[in-house]
Write a structure and sequence with these properties.
alpha/beta, Rossmann fold, Nucleotidyltransferase, domain 5, 2 domains, 8-stranded mixed β-sheet, 7-stranded mixed β-sheet, globular
Length: 426
């Protein structure tokens, strides 16, 4: 069958990306806003599905969230596939089925479990920097293995996160296709419009959105400035684990999504060494009990948010009680308003030293914990965005809230620090 597509590459830059991915298994492309990456990606998947000679080929477009995929990509996919005879579009599954049982499906990275168990002949990650850091390595990469499928990572910079890491790999590995397209170089946006955008945006915003800068701050980042200060003060780097000091854990327990754990040691001086971080999705408490045991630390107290005391309908037991049967005795952090918890976290930052290697995923979560922008009111929304980054940030808030309560309690009791107490930096 000869198929006439309704798509033509917008510019030679788009055509170069198609050609690059035809000769490379993996690719990463950094591009400015309004570059046209979504249309490019969906049509690359569509052509790949039509040309694939494997039995029942499956291709996937993975957006940061399912809702974003439906809102941004679905209409495009339906439009560009509609001229092809025999095509069926299933909106309930966000799947277009081509003749020969060939599928292109839109998925959301906000529910990693929905991606488990699938096989894939090719996948495009749209705005990979806004997705969970391990969505590729732990979930999608295994799905590509038996079919030797390919993957393309697309996005605009949003800080030095997993997309930045992929870009560094693509730049240094000749087996990868790599390209960067800045608005000042592509000519896709009129110079007068770029000048107007520069006037309306901060320098960081413009550099990130149009000039593909990974150095610009994450827009709306709640803890961005605190992390910048910590890096400048060399409080993010190698942090020793003292085997004599107990290790406390602070949790955010997900229901149907990620659970996050920070591992820390507190010194009498008030210094807090944050030595480790762990996060997983779709696992029960027995899994996390095994993680604690495998770490081999001398544990002090395990802290959980107040909602751990809620009893589950099925068992009638709270997760506090369930955890106790597994050897995890939880203390419950005080319940305070969200903004008070964020303030407590900001106040705690100057006392914290983070191990950069073991806490890498947690630091990314803190960097990308942000408030969304209300364009109608021209201000940031009060409630933080609930996405992959919120789990690590919420667990850190647990740590901050219980430290705040401890300090306040000792102040009431007339506590005085021991003279001469100091931390590992002297």
């Amino acid at each position: 069958m000869v198929v006439e597509l309704a798509y033509q590459p917008r510019t030679k830059l788009h055509a170069e990306i198609h050609r690059g991915m035809d000769t490379h298994r993996f690719g990463a492309v950094v591009c400015h806003r309004r570059f046209g990456k979504t249309v490019l990606a969906l049509n690359h998947l569509q052509v790949a599905a039509l040309e694939c000679q494997r039995e029942r080929p499956r291709f996937h477009f993975i957006a940061p969230t399912y809702a974003q995929g439906k809102q941004i990509a679905w209409d495009y996919l339906v439009h560009y596939s509609s001229p092809i005879p025999g095509v069926v579009a299933r909106v309930s599954e966000l799947t277009v089925i081509y003749p020969g049982d060939r599928h292109v499906r839109i998925l959301g990275a906000d529910n990693p479990d929905s991606l488990r168990g699938i096989y894939s002949d090719g996948a495009v990650f749209d705005e990979f920097g806004l997705q969970p850091p391990k969505i590729f390595s732990e979930v999608v990469r295994p799905a590509l293995s038996d079919r030797q499928g390919w993957a393309l990572f697309l996005g605009t910079p949003a800080g030095k996160n997993q997309f930045h890491d992929v870009i560094q790999q693509a730049k240094s590995d000749p087996a990868w296709f790599y390209a960067m397209h800045k608005a000042s170089e592509t000519g896709l946006i009129d110079a007068s419009e770029l000048a107007a955008a520069r006037k309306d945006m901060t320098e960081d915003e413009y550099a990130q959105e149009y000039e593909c800068s990974f150095e610009a701050a994450v827009k709306g980042s709640i803890f961005g400035s605190e992390l910048a200060v910590a890096r400048a003060a060399h409080r993010i780097g190698p942090v020793p684990h003292d085997p004599v000091l107990p290790v406390d854990t602070d949790w955010d327990l997900g229901v149907g999504d990620s659970t996050s754990i920070w591992f820390s040691q507190s010194l009498r001086s008030g210094e807090i060494r944050i030595i480790d971080y762990y996060e997983a999705s779709g696992e029960g408490l027995p899994h996390y009990a095994q993680v604690l045991q495998a770490r081999g630390y001398l544990y002090g107290q395990h802290w959980a948010p107040h909602d751990i005391q809620v009893r589950e309908l099925g068992s009638g037991r709270s997760r506090v009680e369930t955890a106790a049967t597994l050897g995890i005795k939880f203390e419950v952090a005080p319940s305070i308003p969200l903004e008070d918890g964020i303030h407590a976290a900001r106040m705690l930052f100057p006392k914290c030293y983070f191990d950069e290697r073991k806490c890498g995923a947690g630091l990314e979560a803190l960097q990308h914990y942000r408030r969304d922008y209300n364009t109608r009111l021209n201000e940031f929304k009060a409630t933080p965005v609930h996405d992959w980054a919120s789990h690590g940030a919420d667990a850190f808030r647990t740590l901050a809230v219980r430290h705040k309560a401890r300090v306040e309690r000792k102040a009431v009791q007339g506590y005085k620090p021991i003279a001469g107490a100091h931390g590992w930096l002297g």
